[in-house]
């Protein structure tokens, strides 16, 4: 049922007749704005054109890795997608080599790659042989091994012991992969464009749910003994059809590869709980099925849990681990625990239930991925006695190890700067991972000497990590990117709160110049400013344009324990803004606060040239600050990207039903939840808005519909507050198209420059 027009953004706000005191209605005429540029400046254009390495995936013996690498050029108007082959040998000096372009890729053997490319509406799989010796690479001519009758298959995983390829694809209710093309033609020629729904979800992230659903398929792929060529059969087995399962819309439409694993004739996968789907649509179970599809699926979860993610199978196929939220209610600040299931004893245990960090933290509000390689975020160790996994801790994503026995505590393996991802256990006690930081995109690293890690479980384990690749090092040389400086202070309820400062180039201790200051507020709210590279909200890009950037992780942020994350529930407009105010005062005005761990920069910051920017929940924060001038931030201009304006409306319109249930204490028609939503809604305080505001919104943002941009823009215009609206018709909650990204940066920096 559609919400009446009167509810779309204005139905619950206070009338606009009460006029606020407007900041600077007639600013000086703005000069023609241009980015700061030059050989020593990391400009927005540089950031967009910088190469984007993906997650490295090693072969079974651990001597080569495959890394996707994308690079865009404005001059050539090309977006080159390729794959690097990287030697993982410790003594290798051979630079990465790329010979494979576009498409998808996966390992078939230690020296054979499967390269998937689109060809006339189908996907052709080619076998590419690699000769590698003495540090030299050589590729043979790729040979076609077969094709898939669609162009939408992804997540390819080859099981050598079974000689079968497993992948994900979307099919119609008959589950027949070979009939998809015909069904597609019939659907396109149905004579209308109507989409009809009897149940939710109806759309997710940036797409409407169509007639197809995701399933897993298995097909024979083997090497002919006589010809020594790889051949793929055409009998595609739908592994989920007999059980009536389908893969989660949330997982598959967002591009996650962590929906299944394959080993020793077993496929482990996650799927929605069909019995309780209407009541708890985000509840997911973990199942196993024979890789040939000859047996019926077996459920491994208890049935009383919430979301699950990322199943992994150990080397001998006797144990399976996965990530799980215990609550059946949708709650994006519920932590993920590691669950271990023994297939022989049929017993399950939680390995991290007493740990207050979330294994492989998943911020549902920020789901978006476009992976061309299948990857895992948790893996069993080589000896099968431990699990490697990632988790956020104090604004960095770190690698951890935990023994697969009850009562053991996680042991942190990575230290220092940066955040890690894509862990992979390698032979000889090695761990491959991908790491990025505020100063560098992804590179591959190897941690060695893990054979004896069990003896260090009660103490700090220190070992050196070796950097394998230097993908963008030469491009960033001389750009003087800031690694970020942490600061801590006492926030709401006298709790420790963390933040970062990113200083502009040219910052010197003795220099008397004062710099404009920008407060950046992250989304989520169950997210964090962590020490990792970003192609969208990159603080160094703004710092390089001359801004002293302050990034604070207020109440609700992840990586600081579950109590801190959950404390935002029902209090969106409360504790987080105490934290933001206290952190702002500490850095900008050097006000003495207990437990301060930071060198004040007050002599270098100009509080009269202060601005603020935020996206998603950060956009909510910008709109909330607008309505609360008593905070006295003193911002001369603000920017909100895809933010919340009317919290009650969003509780109805969000793409994931129940998304705001925990945040506001119930469904939106519940009296208490309704009161909480209105109490915490920026629309309830719009009559106080006065700061010049730039609003940017993507029309395909189904998390927060574009009416959340139109409504505040209309209000600002009626209030007489300087305002600007930028609509990006083809973008979702993120700005992904390269030209739009450059325009996004231009509009933000132009807007701030106009008022400073």
TrEMBL record:
UniProt keyword Kinase, yes or no: no
MF term (GO), any: serine-type endopeptidase activity
Pfam family, one: Peptidase_S9
Keywords, sorted A to Z: Hydrolase, Protease, Signal
GO terms, biological process: proteolysis
InterPro entries listed in its UniProt record: 6-blade_b-propeller_TolB-like (IPR011042), AB_hydrolase_fold (IPR029058), Peptidase_S9_cat (IPR001375)
Family, similarity comment: Belongs to the peptidase S9C family.
Protein name in the entry: Dipeptidyl-peptidase V
């Amino acid at each position: 049922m559609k919400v009446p027009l009167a509810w779309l953004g204005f139905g619950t706000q206070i009338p606009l007749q009460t006029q606020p005191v407007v900041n600077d209605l007639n600013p000086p005429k703005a000069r023609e704005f241009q980015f700061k540029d030059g050989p020593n400046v990391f400009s927005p254009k540089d950031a967009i054109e910088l190469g984007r390495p993906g997650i490295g995936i090693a072969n079974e013996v651990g001597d080569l890795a495959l890394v996707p690498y994308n690079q865009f050029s404005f001059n050539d108007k090309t977006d080159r997608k390729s794959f690097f082959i990287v030697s993982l040998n410790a003594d290798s000096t051979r630079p990465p080599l790329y010979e494979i372009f576009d498409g998808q890729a996966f390992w078939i053997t230690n020296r054979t790659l499967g390269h998937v490319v689109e060809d006339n509406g189908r996907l052709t799989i080619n076998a590419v042989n690699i000769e590698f010796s003495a540090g030299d690479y050589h590729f043979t001519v790729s040979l076609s091994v077969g094709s898939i009758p669609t162009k939408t298959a992804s997540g390819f995983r080859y099981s050598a012991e079974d000689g079968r390829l497993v992948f994900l694809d979307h099919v119609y209710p008959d589950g027949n992969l070979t009939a998809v093309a015909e069904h597609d033609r019939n659907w396109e020629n149905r004579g209308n464009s109507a989409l009809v729904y009897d149940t939710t979800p109806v759309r997710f992230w940036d797409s409407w749910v169509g007639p197809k659903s995701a399933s897993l398929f298995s097909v024979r792929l083997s090497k002919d003994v006589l010809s020594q060529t790889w051949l793929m059969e055409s009998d595609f087995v739908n592994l989920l059809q007999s059980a009536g399962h389908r893969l989660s819309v949330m997982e598959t439409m967002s591009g996650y590869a962590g929906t299944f694993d394959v080993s020793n004739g077993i496929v482990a996968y996650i799927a929605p709980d069909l019995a309780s789907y209407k009541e708890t649509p985000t509840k997911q179970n973990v199942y196993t099925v024979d890789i040939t599809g000859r047996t019926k699926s077996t459920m491994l979860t208890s049935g009383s849990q919430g979301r699950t993610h990322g199943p992994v199978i150990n080397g001998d196929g006797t144990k399976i681990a996965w990530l799980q939220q215990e609550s059946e209610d949708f709650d994006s600040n519920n932590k993920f625990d590691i669950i271990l299931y023994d297939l022989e004893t049929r017993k399950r245990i939680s390995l991290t239930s007493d740990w207050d960090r979330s294994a492989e933290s998943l911020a549902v509000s920020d789901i978006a991925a476009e992976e061309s390689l299948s990857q895992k975020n948790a893996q069993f160790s080589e000896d099968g006695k431990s699990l490697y996994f990632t988790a956020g801790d104090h604004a960095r994503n770190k690698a951890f190890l935990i023994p697969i026995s009850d009562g053991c505590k996680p042991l942190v393996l990575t230290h220092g700067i940066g955040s890690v991802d894509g862990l992979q256990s390698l032979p000889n006690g090695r761990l491959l991972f991908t790491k990025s930081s505020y100063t560098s995109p992804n590179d591959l690293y190897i941690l060695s000497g893990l054979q004896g890690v069990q003896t260090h479980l009660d103490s700090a384990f220190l070992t050196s990590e070796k950097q394998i690749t230097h993908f963008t090092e030469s491009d960033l040389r001389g750009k003087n990117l800031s690694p970020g400086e942490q600061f801590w202070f006492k926030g709401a309820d006298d709790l420790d709160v963390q933040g970062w400062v990113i200083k502009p180039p040219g910052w010197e201790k003795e220099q008397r110049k004062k710099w404009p200051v920008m407060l950046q507020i992250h989304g989520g709210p169950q997210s964090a400013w962590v020490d990792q590279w970003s192609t969208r909200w990159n603080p160094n890009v703004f710092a390089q344009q001359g801004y002293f950037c302050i990034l604070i992780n207020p109440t609700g942020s992840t990586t600081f324990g579950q109590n801190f994350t959950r404390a935002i529930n029902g209090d969106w407009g409360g504790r987080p803004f105490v934290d933001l105010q206290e952190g702002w005062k500490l850095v900008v005005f050097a006000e003495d606060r207990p437990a301060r761990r930071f060198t004040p920069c007050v002599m270098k910051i100009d509080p009269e040239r202060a601005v603020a920017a935020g996206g998603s929940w950060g956009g909510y924060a910008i709109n909330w600050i607008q309505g609360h001038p008593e905070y006295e931030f003193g911002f001369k201009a603000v920017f909100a990207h895809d933010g919340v304006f009317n919290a009650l409306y969003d509780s109805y319109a969000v793409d994931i039903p129940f998304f705001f249930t925990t945040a506001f204490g119930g469904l939106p028609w519940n009296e208490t939840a309704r009161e909480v939503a209105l109490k915490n809604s920026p629309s309830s305080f719009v009559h106080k808005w006065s700061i010049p505001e730039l609003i940017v919104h993507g029309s395909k943002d189904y998390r927060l519909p574009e009416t959340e941009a139109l409504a505040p823009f209309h209000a600002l215009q009626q209030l007489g507050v300087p305002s600007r609206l930028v609509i990006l018709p083809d973008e979702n909650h993120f700005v992904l198209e390269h030209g739009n990204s450059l325009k996004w940066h231009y509009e933000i920096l132009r807007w701030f420059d106009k008022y400073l």
